[in-house]
Structures are given as structure tokens and as C-alpha cells.
DNA sequence: CAGTGGTCTAGACCACACT
DNA sequence: GTGTGGTCTAGACCACTGC
């Protein structure tokens, strides 16, 4: 094998063709392999959220491929919002901790369509406790029943009107040390706090939406009359490697807001 | 100017730099211009839904650019589901008229997650009439109040259970000749019919979701008891050029199904 | 086999940001 | 000016499809 100066990783440079005599081939193009390697570095925390990753040329040298191949790998990462390209500056690890887009996963917007018209949300932590996962929570978080989990309940208000009631469950281990105090005092979104304080970056989520009527407690917290229909939004959010790290159940008032979704 | 054999269009081959002394530059890369030209041909119906568009090489010759540039243009069109690439065969205009993915825009799925477990939906047209657009419908469809529109009401049932009640409004002109008869007798989705019979291909849509309680008529049609919360899904669907061509208001039962959405 | 999309490369140049 | 990502090109080869 030619030249091997400051080796980092070698992509095993096997553009096409079979490897060993395995019965399940499943080859991937070089740029996919590179994408995988970058992804590994991302998970491993080699580059922190908000920081720049090496330039395309540097990565090309490091992985012994052409810049174009690195480019295609990064293109896919950028398409998945894992990374942000900025012309003339570099490519940066995406982060929730930037005031730009406040709630990246929140699809509830005011009926007038202008998110800025109502100012920042007021957040109130109602409860935060450690407990043992029941079967349902355990399944959603890929834990075992009885494992330690953190349960948080909070209310989000817009222009002083309580609009969202959320219950969320987090695996106990990665979030050791999270308290109502820290949640309340942190300035920024929850996901930003998770990133900064616990190194857990939420990357993807899936939501299941239903229409429900709230119980008495929920009515009180959202200040709605019994019988008011609400949106029930169950979200499972995960980090890199698709590992579920949060189960969140939201109740959304839709008298002044609506859930917006784009299809194509 | 060199060689001009069988001219179709010329992209004015102006990769970078300003054109005339206009005060608003706004230049776009070559591949964006090519994308625009392909888009025009798509709208103009030069290539019908389901049919193959010319090969990358052919388009490169036609537009006087390299294959790579055409490729990048097509990549974006494919990313937007306007076109489908099939290795070894060609690139095809996307269509709703293929049994593969039945309802491309329908996000309601059974709670067990398996769309195939319930078989095809039963469709029943309740009503179909021509009338004049009120202010609300006119605004949504970019028409004037009083313009002719078509109003359709239908119920979708899964495994015999009425699950979706939809009211939809279509601009009268492009859909001249649409009747309840044709809607009922057509085998395939509504959007497939629109494509095949009226040349209107729905490409993009935006949905606004709320929780509501149905009125007496709606309860009867969906066979639910008064007070049952339902999902209200308002959709505006549009063709190429972003022109709105359909306003659809759906009421979804979410006792056995849920609206699924992916975030990233 | 020929034709199509898919991958990979290498090099040139442009647009932008910072110093 | 230097370095970054962004565009464009030209050519080679691979993988899949259908004749």
C-alpha cells in the first residue's frame, strides 16, 4: 500500500466489487462509507455541535479520496440537518443551541402564520422526578421495565396563554443530574440544554398525532374547559445511530394555533 | 456561436457574472437554470406522468451543458419527488397513477403501523356539485369570489369502518366535466384521476391540523358519538408552479389510526 | 450487447468571509 | 490574499436493464 504518512482512518478504499465471500453482499458506494466515518466522528464527539468540521480538502486527504467524494458525503449529512454548510466559512455540526430557529421540532404555529408575532414562549416546569420505567415507556426508549427514567412535566405559554402541556421521559443514565432547577434556570431550549450539559444531540424524531379530550388535571393546566378537543402529539426523538432518547407526549391547544406540515 | 444543429433551447450559457445592467441581479447557477427549463417542459406536458424524460446525455446536448450539470438539476427534481430515477432504465415523470404507494399525501395510518393489514380503502362519494366560491375558498384557491368551483364530499372507510370524511373544493375551469359518476367509477386515487383525466398533477401540499369536535352531520357520516374529538386536516395542494389547485378539509378518526409525521 | 443511471476522479474557476 | 464551500467540466468506469 502506497504512502501512509499521518494515518487517521483508511476507508479500505474498495470502490466496488465484493469483499469476502459473505453471503450478504450489501456494498455501499465510497461516499456512503465516508458518510459513515464522518457520522462516527460526529457521534464520538470528535467535533462538538456548533464547531466546524475539517474542510473538504482535509477530509479528502484524511480518507484518501477525492474532494468530490467527500462533498457528496457531506451533502447527504447536510440534507439530513446533521451538519450545516456555510460558504466561505466551513461546514459546522448542527446544533439546537442557536437562537436562529428556536424550536426546530415544534410544528405548532400561530394561526396568523407569523411565529415572531408572539415573542418567545414562557416555560414553566411543573414537575421533574426520577422513577422506574413502566412497560410502555421502557418499550419506547428501548429500556427494560424498571430501569431508571426521568419524568418531566411542563407548560409552554405564548403571549401569556398556556398552549402546550408536555410530559416527557428520558433514560436515567445519560441524563444523570438533571433537575427541575437546572431545567428552569437554563436559558434556551430543552434540546439545547441536553446538548450542552449532557452531550445528547436530538437529530430525528417521529410524531404520532391524535385528537383527544383532556382530563380534569390537563384542563386546569391548560386553562381550557372540559370537553375542549386538543391535539395529542407523541414524539420519539433520537440521536445519531437512531437510538431513542426521549419520549414526549404533548397536548396542544388548537384554538389559536395549528400544527403545520408540508407534504411533497 | 459554434455548432447549432437541432436547436431546442439554449440556456444562454452564462455560468456566472452579471447579464445586463439590471438593478436586481439574482443570478442562479447553471444547474438551477437547467432545472427550471426541465420544470417548464414538465408543466407544458412535453413528457407525461409515468413516461421517461430524455437521458442525461440527451439533455446535456440539448441544453449545451455537461452531463454532470444536468445530473445535478435532475437530482433536485428527484429530491422533490417530481421525477423518479431508475438505474438502467431512465428517469421518469412521477405520477400518482401507480399502485405502488397508494396515497402519497395521506399521513393517517393504522395504529399497528401496517398499512397493508387493512386492505384497500372503501370510497364513497356523498356529494359532488358545482357552485360559486365564497371568499374563503376563493382565497385558498387564488380565485375571485363567485368564480365557479367544484365541491366534493366523500367518506373513506378502512375495513368497513368509516374513518375519513373529506370536503374538497376544486377550481371549476381545469376540472370541467368532473362528476360524481366519474369519481365513483374510477379505479385509483383521486389524484390519479386528476392526472389522467384532467392533466392536473398535484405535486406539493401544505396541511394545517387542529383538533375539533364534529357537528351532527359529521357524526352521522363517520358513525361516531357527539363529542368525539377528531383531527381536522386542512390541505392546500398545488401543481408545478406552486399554483393552488385543491382545498381539502378532512376529518380523521384517531381511535384506530393516527397521523404520522417525521421530523428531521 | 448497447443504453441508462450511479460513482469517482482531477482540475479549473467563482463567490464569499475573514484577516 | 488565503481559505472555504459552490459550480462546472470531461472522462473513466461500474451496475443495472432489456434486447
Describe the structure in your own words.
The structure is a homodimer of 264-residue chains. The longest helix of chain A is centred in the N-terminal third of the chain and has 15 residues, at 30-44. The first copy, chain A, has two domains: 1-94, Arc Repressor Mutant, subunit A (Orthogonal Bundle); 104-259, Chorismate lyase-like (Chorismate lyase, 3-Layer(aba) Sandwich). By secondary structure, chain A is α+β, with helices and mostly antiparallel strands. Mean pLDDT of chain A is 90; it is low at 1-25. In chain A, the strands form three sheets. A six-stranded antiparallel sheet of chain A has the order 5-6-7-10-9-8. In chain A, strands 1-3-2 form a three-stranded antiparallel sheet. Chain A has helices at 30-44, 56-63, 67-79, 135-140, 180-185, 190-198, 216-222, and strands at residues 52-53, 83-86, 90-93, 108-110, 122-132, 148-158, 161-171, 204-212, 230-238, 244-252, 257-263. In chain A, strand 9 and strand 10 form a beta hairpin. Chain A contains seven helices and eleven strands. The A-B interface holds A 79-81, 104-105, 107, 203-213, 227, 229-232, 235, 252, 254, 258-264 and B 79-81, 104-105, 107, 203-213, 227, 229-231, 235, 252, 254, 258-264. Strand 11 of chain A pairs antiparallel with strand 8 of chain B, so a sheet runs across the interface. The first copy, chain A, binds a DNA duplex (19 and 19 nucleotides) through helix 3.
Amino acid at each position: 500500500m502506497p504512502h501512509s504518512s499521518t494515518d487517521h482512518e483508511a476507508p479500505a478504499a474498495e470502490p466496488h466489487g465484493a469483499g469476502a465471500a459473505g453471503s450478504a453482499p450489501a456494498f455501499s458506494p465510497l461516499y456512503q462509507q465516508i458518510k459513515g466515518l464522518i457520522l462516527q466522528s460526529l457521534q464520538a464527539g470528535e467535533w462538538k455541535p456548533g464547531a466546524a468540521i475539517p474542510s473538504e480538502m482535509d477530509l479528502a486527504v484524511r480518507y484518501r479520496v477525492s474532494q468530490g467524494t467527500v462533498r457528496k458525503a457531506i451533502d447527504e449529512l447536510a440534507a439530513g440537518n446533521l451538519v450545516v454548510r456555510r460558504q466561505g466559512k466551513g461546514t459546522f455540526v448542527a446544533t439546537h443551541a442557536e437562537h436562529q430557529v428556536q424550536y426546530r421540532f415544534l410544528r405548532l404555529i400561530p394561526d396568523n402564520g407569523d411565529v415572531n408575532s408572539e415573542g418567545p414562549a414562557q416555560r414553566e416546569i411543573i414537575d421533574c422526578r426520577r422513577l422506574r420505567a413502566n412497560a410502555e415507556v421502557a418499550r419506547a426508549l428501548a429500556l427494560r421495565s424498571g430501569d431508571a427514567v426521568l419524568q418531566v412535566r411542563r407548560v409552554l405559554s405564548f403571549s401569556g396563554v398556556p398552549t402546550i402541556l408536555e410530559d416527557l421521559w428520558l433514560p436515567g443514565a445519560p441524563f444523570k443530574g438533571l433537575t427541575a432547577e437546572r431545567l428552569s434556570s437554563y436559558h434556551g431550549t430543552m434540546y439545547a440544554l441536553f446538548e450542552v450539559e449532557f452531550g445528547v444531540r436530538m437529530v430525528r424524531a417521529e410524531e404520532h398525532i391524535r385528537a383527544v379530550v383532556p382530563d380534569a388535571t390537563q384542563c386546569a393546566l391548560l386553562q381550557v374547559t372540559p370537553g375542549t378537543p386538543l391535539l395529542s402529539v407523541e414524539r420519539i426523538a433520537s440521536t445519531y445511530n437512531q437510538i431513542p432518547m426521549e419520549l414526549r407526549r404533548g397536548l396542544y391547544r388548537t384554538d389559536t394555533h395549528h400544527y403545520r406540515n408540508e407534504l411533497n
